Amino acid sequence: DFLNRFEKSRYESLILLVEQLIRLHKQSCITPEEVEMQKRERMVINQKIDKLVYELFHLTEEEIRIVEEDT
Q: Is the pTM of this model over 0.70?
């Protein structure tokens, strides 16, 4: 609901995180350290995306647990 400022803000945050994730995937890593650092950054971004999606869809703790068990 884009009329809801709170949800719109979450949606915009989600878009920024996805764009950040896309940029990371396009980056080349040379050293093993860079590869590991990028992997951790992607993991953190994915966790933030998951949290925002759960909030946008108003998932309960039980629903979140079900979703996370399937991944």
A: yes
